[in-house]
Amino acid sequence: MYAVRATHLADQLLDTMPADMATKIQAYDWHQAKVVERGKDHVLLIADDLAVARLPRRQDPELERKMRLLAELDLPWRVPSPLSALGDGVLQSFIPGTAHPHRVGDAATLANIIEVFDNYDTSGLSLGEPFAQRGRLTQQQLADLDRVVDDGMAWAIAEHVHAWTDEGVGKGLVHGDLAGHNMHWVDGQLVGILDWDYAARWDTALNATYLNLWHGVELEAITDVPHRARVWSGALGLYALADALSWDVSPGGWRRLNAKVQPRILAAYQALAHAED
């Protein structure tokens, strides 16, 4: 099924496609492509060194805007560019590289990435809205979190991140998941950033939060607003707990999740006193 959808997209290539590339894509057997299903919003079929078929799991009314954003971005790194018309998905350019190893990273390199995002002019960009992926933490979620998070910490953290968003604190270019497989590295150099679906004009401290969670490099070494980034890290931990409370999580899974996110939530709560300095 996925291969059929990709093949159909290959028959709708843009007129701007070089003829030799178009011939290769149209001749490619998409049954041989690598299938990546880790994303909740779309499936990827990867034809190495050729193209990537991005296939939404459900109808995506925002697909046109998301593709328009990719065309508007002008960054030091590659972003996926559309190769086909938009149909039941889209074909995009292939970007070489792999995810950076987990829990390691060069602080200066990461700080430079954050600085580029901090200083990027977002005027006219077709960005999405803050909280588009998961919504704000609701009153019901926070009430449920009181069962597992002590001292009203969840409410305090949520109050701050909601207020910062409403007040435009740190407003700039936020990727929405700047880490892991969304960043392609070759020989220690960042070459491309993928999956801009949840990019928004939002608090740029979030970019540092995501990089810190993946690379494990201290926030103080990569951003000028480490306390605010730490609060956002706690907020992401709250979302993880809220999700788990609505699932049938095993006792062992619950212990592992708590060991992972409860220290972040406590650190976020403690950082509130300095986050607005």
Task: Tell me about this structure.
- With 277 residues, the protein is an alpha+beta fold.
- It has 2 domains: 2-93, Phosphorylase Kinase, domain 1 (2-Layer Sandwich); 107-271, Alpha-Beta Complex (Aminoglycoside 3'-phosphotransferase, Chain: A, domain 2).
- 42% of the residues lie in helices and 13% in strands.
- It contains 9 helices and 8 strands.
- The strands form 3 sheets. Strands 1-2-3-4 form a 4-stranded antiparallel β-sheet, covered by helices on one side. A two-stranded antiparallel ribbon has the order 5-8. A two-stranded antiparallel ribbon has the order 6-7.
- It is globular and about 60 Å long.
- The mean pLDDT is 97.
Shape: globular
Quick one: biggest sheet?
4 strands, antiparallel
Structural class per helix/strand content? alpha+beta
Count of discrete domains: 2
Q: In the CATH classification, which architecture of the largest domain applies?
A: Alpha-Beta Complex
Helical residue percent band: 40-55%
User: If helices are DSSP runs of H or I spanning 4 or more residues, what is the number of helices?
Assistant: 9
- CA radius of gyration is 20 Å
CATH superfamily of the largest domain: Aminoglycoside phosphotransferase (APH), C-terminal lobe
Range of strand content = 5-15%
State the distance separating the first and last CA atoms. 54 Å
**Broad CATH class of the largest domain:** Alpha Beta
- List the uncertain runs: none
Number of strands: 8
Mean pLDDT, as a whole number?
97
Q: Please name the CATH topology of the largest domain.
A: Aminoglycoside 3'-phosphotransferase, Chain: A, domain 2
Query: Which strand order does the major sheet show?
Result: 1-2-3-4
